[in-house]
Amino acid sequence: MDEFQFIDSIKQKYYKQPSVIKGIGDDAAILRHTDEDTIVAMDTMVDEIHFSKKTTEPFHIGYRVLAANISDIAAMGGKPTSYLVSIAIPESSTLEQLHEIYEGMRALADCFQMDLIGGDTVSSNVLTITVTVIGTVKKDRVRYRSDAKIGDVIFVTGTLGDAACGLDVLLNERENLNKYTYMIERHRMPMPRVTFANACQTISRLSLNDISDGISSEANEIANASKVCLNINYEAIPKHHLLQEFSKEKVEQWVLSGGEDFELVGTVAKSNWDQLVTIAEQTNTKVTKIGTVEEDPTGNGVVLLSKENQTTVLNKSGYTHLRG
Ligand code: ADP
Ligand code: MG
Questions:
Q1: Which atom of ligand 1 is nearest to the CA of 120?
Q2: Domain boundaries, given as residue ranges, for the chain
Q3: What integer is the mean pLDDT of 221-236?
Q4: pLDDT tier at 34 (50, 70, 90 boundaries)?
Q5: Which positions in this protein are listed as binding Mg(2+) 2 (predicted)?
Q6: Which of 27, 30, 197, 293 is packed most tightly, with the most Cβ within 10 A?
Q7: Is the CB of 80 under 6 A from ligand 1?
């Protein structure tokens, strides 16, 4: 099978989105969005850096790279509609593996009626997949990191640290893998929080970020962009009960800087908190209050972490130090 036959084999028979005027098959795709703004994001995964063939099947490589992209659209408050895939293929990859990668992407894309509208195919020494995702959002409902305000409630969706725990279990070839099925699934097939983010449209202002590197990183991004202090209570961060059997140090590392849970962290006005809780219930989403937005006297933005009655500064990499 040559490149053209391959492209033909992954091409959708029809497109679900009315915005797709031209998909795969010409020099470029053509989209027509009318009254909503377009969101574009891109994410790359490289073999042995972002995944290992040892722990990840081709299907899950495809699923996760698209999940990471969709999660960025959710974090902007948008709806994903289409995607493009650039794939650099080493000689060692089989056609079956390539098809499985595309199947993994399609499985998740189908959840959101997304269309594959183009891409690029090259050969290389290292398997590398870059996805460009396109979505739409109403212009006054875009969720910027810079929108946190003093007095806001800080919240997260789901539980944190699960994906990192799942990966750890796989890497350390623990016995009794069945016991950790849930964590392994959270690592292999995370579900981006599109439904919840979209249901929040009735709330006029939210700051939002998706947890791809770990909450220590994303909370700092909100704090810096909004120039406020995010005061987070470590004990309040929701953790799955399966984490209890692991050491406190490991759990803290997973929860604060594990990443790839693709949950959302955000802030909302106190007056909208009850509304957010109702939306969470309606969309079957676990939402937890983990702290409060305060003034940052330095004006730069900072994240404070309260834990066991001690307050430290939490930096981007998850490292904590005493307040200066
Ligand atoms: P060109 O040479 O004009 O850049 P290509 O021959 O690379 O075009 O691609 C032909 C069509 O197939 C285009 O619509 C392109 O977007 C699509 N395409 C190419 N590679 C991929 C891929 N890996 N995944 C999805 N679509 C692809
Ligand atoms: Mg061309």
A1: 20
A2: 3-137, 145-313
A3: 98
A4: confident
A5: 43, 72
A6: 197
A7: no
Could you say which architecture CATH assigns to the domain 145-313? Alpha-Beta Complex (3.90)
Helix (H, G, I), strand (E, B) or coil at 258: coil
**Is the model's pLDDT at 1 over the cut of 80?**
no
Handedness of CA 111, 193, 99, 19 (dihedral sign): positive
Domains 3-137 and 145-313 share a fold: no
Q: What is the pTM for the complete model shown?
A: 0.95
The helix (H) or strand (E) run that includes residue 51 is none
Which residue type sits at 205? R
Q: Compute the chain's Rg from CA coordinates.
A: 20
119 close to ligand 1 (CB < 6 Angstrom): yes
- Tell me, using a 6 A CB cutoff, whether residue 98 lines ligand 1: no
Atom 9 of ligand 1, residue of closest alpha carbon: 120
Q: Which ligand is nearest to the CA of 121?
A: 1
Q: Tens digit of pLDDT for each residue in 43-80?
A: 999 999 998 888 899 999 999 999 999 999 999 999 99
Q: What is the pLDDT of the chain when averaged over all its residues?
A: 95
261 annotated as ligand-binding:
no
Mean pLDDT score, 174-189 = 92
Whether residue 322 has pLDDT greater than 90: no
Give the distance from CA 113 to its chain's centroid: 18
Q: Residue 262: pLDDT above 90? A: yes
Q: Point out the ligand 1 atom lying closest to the alpha carbon of residue 4.
A: 6
H-helix segments, the chain: 3-10, 58-75, 95-111, 162-171, 181-188, 194-199, 215-226, 248-257, 273-282
> What spacing in Å lies between the alpha carbon of 26 and ligand 2's midpoint?
6
Model pLDDT, residue 76: 98
